[in-house]
Amino acid sequence: MPQRVVVVGAAMGGLRTVESLRRAGFAGEIVAVGEEVHRPYNRPPLSKEVLSGEVSHDAVAFPLRASVADVQWRLGVPAESVDLESRVVRLADSTELGYDGLVIATGLRSRRLAAPGPPATVAAGRHVLRTLDDAIGLRAVLDEGVRVVVVGAGFIGCEVAATARGLGCEVAVTAADADALVHPLGSMLGAELRRRHEQRGVTFHLRATVTRFLGADRVAGVELSTGERLRADVVVEAVGSHCNTEWLAAAGLDLSDGVFCDNTLRAVRADGTPVDGVHAVGDVARFPNPRFDEVARRVEHWNMPTETARRVGPTLAAFLAGHGYQAAAERLFAPLPAFWSDQYDTQLQSYGAPGLAGDAPDDVRVLDGDPHGEVVVGYHRDGDLVGVIGLGMASKVNSYRPLIGRQPT
After folding, report:
1. What is the mean pLDDT of residues 5-15?
2. 0.85 exceeded by pTM
3. DSSP state of 354
């Protein structure tokens, strides 16, 4: 009887996993399960160029290669639970899928604010931006003159603010942070990005939280912890995310922050033992990266679904072929995280883990250029370069990639 791999999650991580399995020579059955009705598509452009134009699945869909033409896509039906002992995944429609290998690729969902007021629905004017349907709903209301309040000053919030301004909306951004993008970029570049937004007409209301949504059935604004009220026709909540791990609650895995994995990306039980044949990829996977240290972390960067899938495909295929995990364990997995962001005419690129930088005055410093123009900033810990971020200067940014972190063999 042919072997079967079930991939739970049909976004980029799921697609790259099935491609990687086929490249590694796995010839058995593959079933990809997805909560959304859409075939795999690219999420990052949803808050960038796609949101500023016509939002459609065709604009962001990944092409399906011939190598995965025989993959079964079970879309629009989420996984409800898994029994690791009997190796069965149960779907919300009561379908049971037995498996020889399981890949967890369920990713994240947007967090919602718990403040009182109109309900957290598109009809009430409260939006999030994680899925294609979210983008379609938001794009439909971003017209010239519309008052938009963005809650959250991270990448999604600032990208939405830039896109909305480009469409002629009046935009205010509020956040509990001391500056825009301060967590991923630090205070130097965060202040510079805020300045560029303000030059385009975005107003910032920082060190403030939303205590109440104004309005009855539909949002009319937000009230802040400072007492200030911001009028709004549309509110976008860009305040982080939750891991989609509820379906794993009874499986006995370590789910303290996503799915804890070892360096082969095998899921690990709460008692610390890895589960052979069960792996996690993408945003939901928390694993140690020896490029930096031995601490397991989740990384929500655009290249991580691809990098983790490339690790899991041959590793799981080898296990299913009876070769175990020794070869994978000897070949350390040390990916270089990367992300990018376009805001107005500013092109931002990052490599490594800037958030690991130390607190010494010289740990975050300009390597090339000028923060008010094009610049490359290096992020250091104990004298080692752990991350680099560039505003423009793409070739210079790329030149620092080989210097980031340890270089494990």
Report:
1. 96
2. yes
3. G
